[in-house]
Amino acid sequence: MKTCPHCHIQVGGSAQYCPLCQNPLVGTPEPDRYPKVVPPARQASLFYRIAAFVLLGAAVICGVVDYIMIEGRHMHWSLLVLIGAVGGVLLLRALLRQGRNAPKLLFQILIGTSLIVTFADYYAGWNGIAIDAIVPILCSVTLVLNFIFAFVNRRFTENGLVYLLLNIVVGVVPYIGLTLRHSVRPPLAWVICLVISMITFLGLVIFKGRSLLAEFEKRLHL
Question: b or e along 12-35 (b: 16 or more beta carbons within 10 Å of the residue's beta carbon)?
């Protein structure tokens, strides 16, 4: 066991400095009393770094092939690969950091994926298929997953209003925004998304009404 020559105290474990005076300890350190365990956060961080290295490395290789090895005028598809790789890294980071906050995680994934798809639509000239079909499909899937997580998540009472808010923001707000902007009925995919939003909203209110009311009273201090 190590000893501090100034404070004359014994310090167990493998400490290098005295906890009182911060001077170097002398003597032979004793073996660690507990096994070294890598925290889950460090494991997740290592996985995230490896995934980011692979995705961004693949984007660099695609860029070299696109801009250097392919001659002549052509659509630079490597830019789409780069956007997808960066989006994948950001979405993976959100997935590893959010833990049990399912609504916030779903919303971040939806926004990130929608931005990537919309940019690819604009860059590749897909004639607006992202806004008319792909994004509303993503919103519909988000609404269904949000409804499922509301029943699976044991911490629903703490985030009940967040589930409802996500339901309204994803399903109702885009439909109203598109209607006001174009003064016409949005495409069928957005209508289906609105129907799914209304049905899941009613399901949350009917089956989780007491938990929602309790959280509402708690947040408003009623």
Answer: eeeeeebeeeeeebeeeeeeeeee
How large is the angle between the packed helices 102-124 and 135-152, nearest 10 degrees?
A: 170
Which amino acid, one-letter code, is at 28?
T
How big is the CA angle at 127 (ends 144 and 74), to the nearest 5 degrees? 120
Q: Residue 119 has which token pair?
A: 């940019």
Give the separation between CA 192 and CA 153, rounded to whole angstroms: 26
Q: Give tens-digit pLDDT for 153-164.
A: 655 555 677 888
Contact 114, 91 (CB under 8 A): no
Rounded-to-integer distance, Cα 63 and Cα 73, Å: 15
Q: Which residues of the chain have pLDDT under 70?
A: 31-44, 94-101, 153-159, 219-222
Contact, 100 vs 153, CB < 8 A? yes
Any residues with CB less than 8 A from the CB of 165 and at least 6 apart, and which? 103
CA angle 35, 37, 40 (to 5 degrees): 165
Kind plus residue range of the DSSP H or E element containing 78: helix 78-98
